[in-house]
């Protein structure tokens, strides 16, 4: 196997010079000497050591993306946006999944720091746990102190650049829109009570109903996934309230709720209306088409990478608004409903 020493000897240069040329050091090497080293490397079939490159540059061309659930289309869409943006910068993306475990999130960041990743992007909701949040901030501070760059997608709670989806505001808009269709009795499948994204969306929806002069919705907590939505909907049905519209705080929960409603012989929207949040891609095949709030998920991933790769500055916040999309899963109780059928 050809070594860097072999290349240096063949090119007639020092080992340090060969390393600067082939491992991407920021120190300049003259054009003629660089050409000699590169020519020798080609002739000898030398392959660059990625670890040595990272040491020479102070950082690699790797972007670490830490997400909470690889099977959730929400995170898949964000990761796809990061990968496409990274390609334009000739960077490589590595992906880590936390399974919504804050300990795993911190461990991923420490590993990426040890690997000298150029940037770390963290996508997902924070959990209402000040001890874990403090540990996350400390780990990110160590990574930034070593020259790494960080951007989050979620709540502005870590003291770093953050892409902030306006969950509360968009959920409020959705509630107002549904109230405008004549619905008066609502239930909210509210997700986990300590997950900020879930609580923000549930609170915003409640605020929208109160602003419309409507009573409090029935609140049912549950898991933040398809099974959680199904179980929460079954619990709602067992309690027997008179409801005309159900709001699930994310789309995968809404899919689970739809299954539960069908199991009980209820038709959507003829018997009960249903809405979600996120506008994930698989909704394109759902029948009936789901009313939801559209977030530009891939664009959020791109924005996070742009923040991370830009010059370090004071923490910046990039708010991202959601768009209410009315589709066939909701029917009007007073007058016709104008549905947005775009995917």
TrEMBL record:
PROSITE patterns reported for this sequence: HTH_LACI_1 (PS00356), HTH_LACI_2 (PS50932)
A Pfam family: LacI
Alphabetized GO MF terms: DNA-binding transcription factor activity; transcription cis-regulatory region binding
Gene3D superfamilies linked: 3.40.50.2300, lambda repressor-like DNA-binding domains
Ranges where the HTH lacI-type domain occurs: 2-57
Sorted UniProt keywords: DNA-binding, Transcription, Transcription regulation
Record CDD domains: HTH_LacI (cd01392), PBP1_LacI_sugar_binding-like (cd06267)
Domain of life: Bacteria
PANTHER family found in the cross-reference section: LACI-RELATED TRANSCRIPTIONAL REPRESSOR, LACTOSE OPERON REPRESSOR
Protein name according to UniProt: LacI family transcriptional regulator
Gene, per the UniProt record: lacI_2
